[in-house]
Design brief:
Subcellular location (chain A): Membrane
Shape of chain B: elongated
CATH superfamily of the largest domain in chain B: P-loop containing nucleotide triphosphate hydrolases
Largest sheet of chain A: 4 strands, mixed
Oligomer: heterodimer
GO molecular function (chain A): ABC-type transporter activity
Low-confidence stretches of chain A: none
Mean pLDDT of chain A: 83
Keywords (chain A): Membrane, Transmembrane, Transmembrane helix
Strand order of the largest sheet of chain A: 2-1-3-4
Strand order of the largest sheet of chain B: 6-7-8-3-9-10
Number of helices of chain A: 15
Mean pLDDT of chain B: 88
Distance between the termini of chain B: 36 Å
Radius of gyration of chain A: 31 Å
Pfam families (chain A): ABC2_membrane_3
Shape of chain A: elongated
CATH topology of the largest domain in chain B: Rossmann fold
Main location (chain A): membrane
Number of helices of chain B: 10
Number of domains of chain B: 2
Chain lengths: ~400, ~300
């Protein structure tokens, strides 16, 4: 057993070490991390940018200060009201960009000075404030206490009884699911292609003959898939962890909305998906002898995965409970990409998860047998591209 | 003892090997000689398990080779290749460990062989940064680093500079003297003649002649070189026992017909008499065929057999 397994581990260790120490891995990971950070920063800025305003008041409109400050929270605006000595000073401040608006004149019908047009949120707050001033004046003139009326109104309102209350964390769940699907797609494509590249490199440099005089083809294939799969997993964990940290810091991800179980599922499906795709990529790579030809045998696979990914990604965003995404997530080649997302969204029944797991494992076993055979038959053939028919012929002993 | 026993292999409609058999004994340096496409590389690949034979068996020490016993064979493939971006030392240790050596054994052997082959300064360099000559040395180290019990080398001398040829010859002899069966193929027949204890000549997937170079010589037809400067062309045509005559080596080379040894003296006497009748004779001696000539004859004979 150790005699059979040790070469596999040696090969895996070589693949892992040569990739992780390679510049491409470090640079690639750092670049993706920086992009993630920039993205999060941009989102945070856009999200918080519109929520504050500075408004100046002058003359009789100073009476609006209280109503403005009361109206702001209902519009979700963080408002600062700054008294101004006169209209000219206030207008200058608006022009200079120190104030978003200046309010002057009669409280019920003030003049609002802005640079070009008022911000919609600010305008609604001002309208709220002026109407409450007008309403209070009207009520007081007729002997009604506005505060008493407000109290009475506050107690009214319907009580909603929902059969299926919306999930307050739906947004976060969708975000997690989509991020998971994207990371899986990215990892499988990148590291699957690396497996193919490694296979072709060994063929092109002819070192494969020395290696295969020491180990069996399946040991070489398995070692490669394990080693590169581990590199991909490492990067997935680094990127996923960093993404969550950034999201947490930016306040996008407030609570752990099934976070741990989502992460576990992403890893489980990554392992399955990687075994599946890496074998396909290795078999495809073994058909050619030169790096230049690699793309031609990989494109059918990558294009299929890409199409599936684009379709599934859109379905997840717009129709996450529909039949199409359910079917897609049950089809073995696509299950690893979309099942974890559906699990994160909470729309995958346990029966479907089990079915997808069983189908994917069975499919992967088939791909391993077939891909291993193609690999063993083609990996020593140099020169012209090996046809699939030849590659599927009698395996060597 | 490495036994290649009745191996056959077809690639589609091409017969690559047709009952290839030979034996390399412990402490024997065996030269494997033949034209391109004769089946040398295919034989070696099958011995290493890189290809599967259609029929026949390869045995080591009387037992059919399996994955474990194959790891005891040091192999240099015809298509040279190493990981281009891996450092020399790391690569040699890796290849030794793949063949079942412990990490410590691998480290020790990698250090020893790089030193022996003059690569000490290069241990940390990527293979792709080495000169072609040094890459060949690393390739030899790769075949030796797992301390093999048997060596199978496909064209180990091709592309080597004269210094490296000497190092390679020395290493092969040393392994042979240590009791290992060593087999290598080569087109450099003088080198094979000089180094090998026994030679196998292969043509069209079969062994057509085998033996020590001296044995092969004795088995081949007797040749006599005669330098008789005044002799006209065709002077030896009528002499009994002479099969062929050709001009070579500054005289006439006569090939004698196969005959019992008792007749040899008489035939030689008749030839010398015929030569002296033409004028002075400057040289008259038994000529030793080179391995190249033995090889040509063996291949031509087997071709004639096939045609007949």
């Amino acid at each position: 057993m150790t005699g059979t397994l040790r070469p596999v581990l040696l090969i895996a260790r070589r693949e892992f070490a040569s990739r992780v120490r390679g510049r491409a891995f470090v640079v690639g990971t750092v670049v993706v991390l920086v992009l993630l950070g920039v993205y999060a920063a941009v989102i945070a800025t856009i999200a918080s940018g519109d929520d504050t305003a500075r408004v100046g008041v002058t003359g009789p409109a100073i009476a609006l200060t209280g109503p403005l400050e009361r109206a702001a929270p209902t519009e979700g605006l963080e408002l600062t009201v700054v008294p101004q000595p006169d209209v000219a000073t206030g207008e200058a401040a608006v022009r200079a960009g120190d104030l978003d608006a200046l309010i002057g004149g009669e409280p019920a019908r003030p003049r609002v000075y802005v640079e070009s047009e008022p911000d919609a949120q600010t305008e609604r707050v001002i309208v709220d404030a002026t109407s409450s001033v007008a309403r209070d004046g009207f009520l007081v003139a007729r002997g009604v206490d506005p505060a008493a009326l407000d109290a009475a109104v506050a107690e009214s309102g319907p009580v909603i009884v929902a059969a299926e209350p919306p999930d307050p964390q739906a947004g976060q769940r969708l975000g997690l699911g989509l991020a998971g699907a994207f990371l899986l797609f990215f990892s499988i494509q990148t590291y699957g292609a690396m497996v193919a590249q490694g296979v072709v490199e060994e063929k092109a440099s002819r070192v494969v003959e020395i290696v295969l005089s020491s180990v069996r083809p399946w040991q070489l294939l398995l070692g490669k898939v394990l080693g590169l799969g581990a590199v991909g997993l490492l990067q997935l964990v680094v990127l996923g962890g960093a993404g969550l940290a950034v999201a947490g810091a930016a306040g996008i991800l407030v609570t752990a909305a099934g976070l741990v179980s989502t992460l576990v599922w992403v890893v489980v499906w990554y392992l399955l998906g990687f075994a599946l795709y890496a074998t396909v990529f290795a078999a495809a790579g073994s058909l050619v002898s030169r790096q230049e030809d690699t793309q031609s045998v990989l494109s059918p696979v990558t294009i299929t995965v890409l199409l599936g990914f684009v379709v599934g990604f859109n379905l997840l965003t717009y129709d996450q409970r529909g039949t199409p995404i359910t079917v897609l997530s049950l089809l073995p080649p696509f299950s690893p990409l979309f099942m974890p997302a559906r699990i994160a969204l909470g729309v995958a029944p346990a029966g479907q998860i089990v079915l997808a797991l069983v189908l994917t494992i069975a499919f992967t076993a088939g791909v391993l047998a077939l891909g291993g055979r193609i690999y063993a038959n083609s990996v020593l053939r140099t020169g012209a591209r090996v046809s699939l028919r030849e590659a599927l012929g009698r395996s060597r002993g | 003892m490495l036994e290649i026993d009745g191996i056959s292999k077809r690639f589609g409609s091409t017969v690559a090997l047709d009952g290839m058999s030979f034996t390399v004994r412990p402490g024997e340096l065996y030269g494997f000689v033949g034209a391109n496409g004769a089946g040398k590389t295919t034989t070696m690949r099958i011995a290493l398990g890189v290809l599967a034979a259609d029929a026949g068996e390869v045995r080591l020490g009387g037992r059919a080779l399996d994955a474990a016993s194959r790891r005891r064979i040091g192999y240099m493939p015809e298509e040279r290749g190493l990981y281009p971006r891996m450092a020399v030392g790391t690569q040699l240790r890796y290849l030794a460990e793949l063949r079942g050596r412990s990490a410590a054994q691998a480290r020790e052997a990698a250090d020893r062989w790089t030193e022996r082959l003059g690569l000490t300064e290069r241990r940390g360099d990527e293979v792709q940064r080495l000169s072609l000559g040094n890459q060949q040395r690393v390739q030899l180290a790769a075949a030796l680093v797992a301390e093999p019990d048997v060596l199978v080398l496909d064209e180990p001398f091709s592309g080597l500079d004269p210094m490296a040829v000497d190092v390679m010859s020395e290493v092969l002899r040393e392994r042979r003297d240590a009791g290992a069966p060593v087999v290598f193929s080569s087109h450099q027949l003088e080198l094979v003649e000089r180094l090998c204890d026994r030679v196998g000549i292969v043509r069209a997937g079969r062994l057509v002649a085998e033996g020590a170079v001296a044995e092969l010589r004795d088995a081949s037809a007797v040749e006599v070189l005669v330098d008789a400067p005044q002799a006209p062309a065709g002077w030896a045509d009528g002499v009994p026992g002479v099969a062929r005559a050709r001009a070579a080596d500054g005289g006439t080379v006569l090939t004698l017909a196969d005959a019992p040894h008792t007749d040899l003296e008489a035939t030689l006497g008749a030839v010398l008499d015929a030569a002296r009748r033409t004028g002075p004779v400057h040289e008259f001696r038994r000529r030793r065929p080179t391995l190249a000539e033995i090889y040509r004859d063996a291949v031509a004979e087997s071709q004639a057999e096939v045609a007949a």
